[in-house]
Amino acid sequence: MDTPTQRAQTHYGGAGLMAKVQAALAAFGPEETVLTVSQLAMLDQFHTRGMLATGELAEAMELEAGMAVLDLGCGIGGPTRYLAANYGVHVTGVDLSPSFVDTARYLSQRCALGDSTTFLTGDATQPPVADGSIDRVFLQHVAMNIADRAALYRAIRRVLKPAGRFATYDIVAKDGAPHFPVPWATTPENSHLRTEAETRDALTAAGFTIDLWRDDTEVASQWFAKMVAGGPPAGPTLALVLGADFPAMMANLARSLREGRIGVLTAIASCR
Ligand SMILES: C[S@@+](CC[C@H](N)C(=O)[O-])C[C@H]1O[C@@H](n2cnc3c(N)ncnc32)[C@H](O)[C@@H]1O
């Protein structure tokens, strides 16, 4: 029987992803063209409200140039690159999927951010970095794939420095199950949503103090409505990563938010 981690790995397998991405980026010019983080945003910001949400969470987490940041469950590295490009920090992205990690490295080179980003294959519940070595941990739309929240938040607490902070932006359970498939799971077995209260309890039990706690469900619903009204975006999008089910996944996510089945939580916690 597969573990939740193996099932998440299969869901985000990304077979042949690098070749698809390389082909799609030809739209921006020859291979040696240096790309910007904004150009890639529809492709590599793999969460509700895209680069807008990354920017808001980055502002709230009090970054300083030179800090060591860990982006857990980094996907193909959109948020990782955003932080490195805008805040002068060094960001290590960690993801379960080797093909995501390879694609993330390639995209960082294309954006001339190879020196300020590092990508490693690994499990967020056992991050492959030294204990007490990280100033900020960033976790966007990943926890819903992780069943053992106690292990996740304990691991984050462990790798942070004493003055470290943890920033998260994730989907939470509200009233009923989401409609499947959603972007993080095709079936309920791969979805490990927790309520806001359960999330807060798990963070507190891991030794965190909550600095910011915000329900972003309504703002996320409004964003989906605007996206639909605006029609399909130009250029490479997340559909490349998620495949044929992408439209159904996005529609189910928007509908589940609208119906109050699930929510979007922003939280910042510190080690104090
Ligand atoms: C919805 S994507 C979000 C990617 C990225 N955080 C972003 O916002 O663009 C979820 C990512 O979490 C990764 N993931 C899921 N479970 C994980 C785990 N236990 N450890 C590391 N990565 C994990 C998946 O491989 C996938 O890339």
UniProtKB/TrEMBL annotation:
A matching Pfam family: Methyltransf_11
Protein name: SAM-dependent methyltransferase
Naturally occurring in which organism (per UniProt): Trinickia symbiotica
Example GO BP: sterol biosynthetic process
InterPro entries linked to this entry: Erg6_SMT_methyltransf, Methyltransf_11, SAM-dependent_MTases_sf
GO molecular function, one term: sterol 24-C-methyltransferase activity
Taxonomic superkingdom: Bacteria
Keywords (A to Z) from UniProt: Methyltransferase, Transferase
All residue ranges annotated as the Methyltransferase type domain in the record: 70-167
